[in-house]
């Protein structure tokens, strides 16, 4: 089968950073679906895994943890799926990704794709939807049913893939959303998604929050870098408030004020359930099914902004370049394979 992989970890401008390769079609294990891949999307995790380092792979490593496709075979223990089902999923970072014509995924972390979306639109959803959902409703423990309605949530990185869905989920739960954006086009995007207020993350945040008549915000979801915003977040969140982050810190985080305010800080990593085979792995399949329902009833919009075709090394390198520029809005997806 056709696939895009790497054997060396190189800068994305090097043609060898991602290459077209031929690999055997994988066979499903007992809990797996074998999926014919119709579309994939890129995420910061792809660029992070591919980042330059001296390692060399003996066989090509396949990235890509956002997939939409069609089930062509099922493992012996799979329930609830059949050959021919259109599905979408984010997958498991400990297994090969989906940048290949056929890919395996544990059926418990997959769901039927939204019927109203094409494959590229669906592929743009899973990883960011799961990250945003888990961050808000599991890590921050916000009440999806409206129990925290009217409280304030600051979303840092509002125009990115995770932020674009986080804004919509928070508005669904009735929160007042303050999103960060710094350019006219990103400001317009987060407003379209339902942000009540927009502040510029390139400028100090406290004066902008105070200009909204607020001393503190109740909750903060940092979907951008942790280091540059940590001290501002600790200052801005209310005493006994909560912060969720998704990007590793690269230096020690000052915690004195956080302790004084009894702030809760929690990490969100979408791959935790699959990586550690947690007893509640199937929750990710349930979340994706719920998100698909929201898409199909029109209460949630997809976040695909850029399409590339076909799925090949040249287009995946281009997608990585755009992602690494730090200026991408929404998601980038690729669909179709060349003949």
From TrEMBL:
<dbReference type="InterPro" id="IPR020843">
    <property type="entry name" value="ER"/>
</dbReference>
<dbReference type="InterPro" id="IPR036291">
    <property type="entry name" value="NAD(P)-bd_dom_sf"/>
</dbReference>
<dbReference type="InterPro" id="IPR052585">
    <property type="entry name" value="Lipid_raft_assoc_Zn_ADH"/>
</dbReference>
<keyword id="KW-0862">Zinc</keyword>
<dbReference type="InterPro" id="IPR013154">
    <property type="entry name" value="ADH-like_N"/>
</dbReference>
<feature type="domain" description="Enoyl reductase (ER)">
    <location>
        <begin position="16"/>
        <end position="334"/>
    </location>
</feature>
<dbReference type="Pfam" id="PF08240">
    <property type="entry name" value="ADH_N"/>
</dbReference>
<keyword id="KW-0479">Metal-binding</keyword>
<keyword id="KW-0560">Oxidoreductase</keyword>
<comment type="similarity">
    <text>Belongs to the zinc-containing alcohol dehydrogenase family. Quinone oxidoreductase subfamily.</text>
</comment>
<dbReference type="Pfam" id="PF13602">
    <property type="entry name" value="ADH_zinc_N_2"/>
</dbReference>
<dbReference type="InterPro" id="IPR002364">
    <property type="entry name" value="Quin_OxRdtase/zeta-crystal_CS"/>
</dbReference>
<protein>
    <recommendedName>
        <fullName>Zinc-type alcohol dehydrogenase-like protein</fullName>
    </recommendedName>
</protein>
<dbReference type="InterPro" id="IPR014182">
    <property type="entry name" value="ADH_Zn_typ-1"/>
</dbReference>
<dbReference type="InterPro" id="IPR011032">
    <property type="entry name" value="GroES-like_sf"/>
</dbReference>
């Amino acid at each position: 089968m056709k696939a895009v992989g790497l054997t060396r970890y190189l800068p994305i401008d090097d043609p060898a950073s991602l290459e077209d390769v031929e690999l055997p079609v994988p066979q499903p294990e007992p809990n797996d679906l074998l999926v014919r891949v119709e579309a994939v999307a890129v995420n910061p995790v792809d660029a992070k895994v591919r980042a330059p380092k001296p390692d060399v792979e003996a066989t090509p490593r396949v990235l890509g943890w956002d997939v939409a496709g069609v089930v062509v075979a099922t493992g012996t223990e799979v329930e609830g799926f059949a050959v021919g089902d259109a599905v979408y999923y984010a997958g498991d970072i400990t297994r090969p990704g989906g940048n290949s014509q056929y890919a395996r995924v544990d059926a418990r972390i997959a769901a039927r794709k939204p019927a109203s979306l094409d494959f590229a639109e669906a592929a743009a959803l899973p990883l960011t939807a799961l990250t945003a959902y888990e961050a808000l409703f599991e890590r921050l423990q916000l009440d999806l049913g409206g129990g925290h309605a009217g409280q304030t949530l600051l979303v840092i990185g509002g125009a990115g893939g995770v932020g674009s869905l986080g804004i919509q989920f928070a508005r669904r739960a009735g929160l007042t959303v303050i999103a960060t954006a710094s350019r006219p086009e990103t400001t317009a995007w987060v407003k379209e998604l339902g942000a009540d207020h927009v502040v510029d993350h390139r400028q100090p945040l406290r004066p902008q929050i105070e200009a909204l008549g607020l001393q503190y915000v109740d909750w903060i979801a940092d979907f951008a870098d942790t280091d540059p915003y940590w001290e501002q977040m600790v200052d801005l969140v209310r005493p006994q408030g909560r912060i969720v982050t998704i990007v590793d810190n690269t230096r020690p985080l000052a915690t004195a004020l956080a302790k004084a305010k009894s702030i809760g800080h929690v990490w969100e990593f979408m791959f935790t359930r699959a990586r550690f085979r947690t007893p509640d792995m199937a929750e990710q399949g349930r979340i994706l099914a719920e998100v698909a329902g929201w898409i199909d009833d029109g209460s949630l919009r997809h976040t695909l902004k850029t399409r590339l075709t076909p799925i090949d090394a040249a287009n995946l390198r281009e997608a990585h370049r755009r992602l690494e520029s730090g200026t991408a809005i929404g998601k980038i997806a690729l669909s179709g394979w060349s003949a």
